[in-house]
Amino acid sequence: MDSAPGTAPSTITASFLGEAQAVVGDQLLTGNAMFLPGGATPELTAVSLTDNTARTLLANSKGSFVATPDGGALATAGPSSVDWHVYRVTPAEDGSATTEKALDLPAWQAAPDGMTLAGGELLMYGNTTHTGGIYGFYDIPLDTAGRPTGLQSRRGPTLQGSTCPGGDAACPQLEALGDGRVAHLWTDAQGEEHVLAVGLDATTIADEPTGDAGGRIGTGTGRYVLYNGGTPGSQRVADFPRGATAGGTALDRTRTAAAVWGQRLWTPGGTQGTVVAYDLKAKKNVATVDTGAPCTPSEIQAVNAWLYWSCGSAGPAGVYDRAANRAITVPSGQARLADGYLVRENRTTHELLLTDFHTGTATTRTVAVLPTADQNTGGSTGRWAVDRFGGNVAYLTDRRQVAIVTAGVPTSALAQMEAQTDPHPGGPTTANPWRPVWQLNKPSTWRLTLSNASGTVVRTLTGASTAAAVRPAWDARTDSGVFVPSGTYTWKLTAEPRDGQGPALALTGTTTAG
User: Fold this and answer.
1) Which of 32, 126, 434, 479 could form a disulfide with 18 if both were Cys (CB 3.0 to 4.6 A apart)?
2) H or E segment at 274?
């Protein structure tokens, strides 16, 4: 409007994401809270109409935008729902735009549509905005007693609603993987289901198409997720290795009862009561266990040395302790196995029942009474969930709030379930460091040392696990910041259990630099 009559429209060539929201001064404001590609962050961008430069005006601007009559704009922004504000955007004398905080907003409270626990993290799925269709995962860190130790944070990009089979109210299907990620199902426009894994950051989605529809998420840990297809007999294990956004299929097989724990898939053996462990990396059977079950199990679950089997909802059920080589009888019925105990719901009385079997004898107690009005059909990740990587139980109250119960059952010793420690191709650099992953069975604090050929420690890294996964990064520099010479380096990982139960874990190996 300020141009001379007859001036031809100009073209904006600056690179930016989002849609036009307002013009303030000589700046075009662009932003889009709903649809962003993986790796992009929701932000308000100012694009100059005079020189086509672009700059970030507000980071984490994933709310609404309104132009104001005075030539400015209002935008909502903040890193989380508990740190949310209205900003006033006004033109400056030089044509640029400035921002100032105009109003602090209270947290927008929303009941979770799904929840799960893993490695001391409460992960909730839901919509914390006023806009339909904007779903995401949110995390609250917990201590060993289940008390929050930090604020809620977003752990994934904006997602479409999760796949829910017709007539199934126990939805969305969530499986916490114990490495900071959650797996769930999504159906594309062609009707094909995809296994998605999100949670390491606020932007990345790992995706593996299934080629099927009407399926269910089974169990999963770390990089591996079990998918039971809607096609009769179809079963596969999706693989999401470190750094991958495109998943793979580690195994495609005929469907049976099955469970994934670490890099092992447990399935019924060739004789009654036996269960076989298949190593997903070695591609071969590595163990056979006689559980004593009087049937071919219709359900199998695995956590650490515990193997749960069931002969059906009306049949017997048991747990086999592989560490002590003993069979333990447990109550039948839909249950979720954890470390030394299992949880089930009495669908008549709505009692949440915890069966502690870690001593070899099963004892059951009521840990909560759930609301009479069902939110779902009683499965884990709906009304209740258990932490297979650390010991707590969560459930939804009649006010749709999440309550945490400490199981009070001793946890197993810290152990490695799976690891990805192969050297970085071409040697690590500052831009592309070596990023090993050690998937452990419960949360830890860790120390990683790297030593040269003479045994001298050149770098020491420390940290806390992401859920139960250790994820350091080494840029091939020493503690003083100097690049190390090319060669082979010995690493040593020492992890201390965060719950203080059991000894430290020590692992060693080699990697290369240069």
Assistant:
1) 32
2) strand 274-279
d(Cα 498, Cα 502) in Å, to the nearest integer?
Answer: 10
- What's the average model confidence in pLDDT over 213-241? 93
The backbone torsions φ and ψ at residue 130, rounded to the nearest 5 degrees and listed phi first, read: -85, 0
Beta strand pairing status for 444-451 and 457-464? antiparallel
pTM as predicted: 0.85
pLDDT higher than 50, residue 74 = yes
Q: Is the peptide bond before 172 cis (omega within 30 degrees of 0)?
A: yes
The predicted model gives 289-312 an average pLDDT of: 96
Q: What whole-number distance in Å separates Cα of residue 419 and Cα of residue 439?
A: 6
**How many CA atoms, within 13 angstroms, populate the side-chain half-sphere of residue 7?**
8
Partners of 175 in beta bridges:
183
Please report, rounded to a whole number, the percentage of residues in the chain having pLDDT higher than 70. Answer: 92
Q: What angle do CA 22, 37, 210 make, to 5 degrees?
A: 145
Q: What tens digit of pLDDT does each residue of 420-439 get?
A: 999 977 779 888 899 999 99
The token pair at 239 is 């693989």
Instruction: Write down the pLDDT at residue 382.
Output: 66
476, 491 Cβ separation under 8 angstroms: no
Report in angstroms the alpha-carbon separations of 397 from 112, 195, 366, 405.
11, 29, 15, 12
Quick one: which of 76, 79, 65, 80 has its CA closest to 24? Answer: 65
User: What is the spatial distance between Cα 312 and Cα 297, in angstroms, rounded to a whole number?
Assistant: 8
pLDDT band at 280 (very low <50, low <70, confident <90, very high): very high
CA–CA dist 57, 68 (Å, integer): 17
CA distances from residue 359 to 109, 309, 329, 353, 355 in whole angstroms, order as listed: 42, 18, 12, 18, 11
d(CA 273, CA 298): 11
Structure tokens at 442: 């419960």
Cα 363–Cα 468–Cα 362 angle in degrees, nearest 5: 10
Q: H or E segment at 208?
A: strand 206-209
Strand, helix or coil for residue 7: coil
- Report how far residue 212's alpha carbon sits from residue 163's, in angstroms, rounded to the nearest whole number: 13
pLDDT of 18 reads 74
Half-sphere exposure of 420 toward its Cβ, with a 13 Å CA cutoff?
24
C-alpha–C-alpha distance, residues 118 and 386, integer Å? 8
Q: Is 363 helix (H, G, I), strand (E, B) or coil?
A: strand
The CA distance from 110 to 269, in Å, is 46
Rounded to a whole number, what is the distance in angstroms from the first to the last CA of the chain?
58
Closest by CA to 388, choosing from 464, 439, 326, 323, is: 439
Please name the amino acid found at residue 162: S
Closest CA to 440 of 471, 463, 415: 415
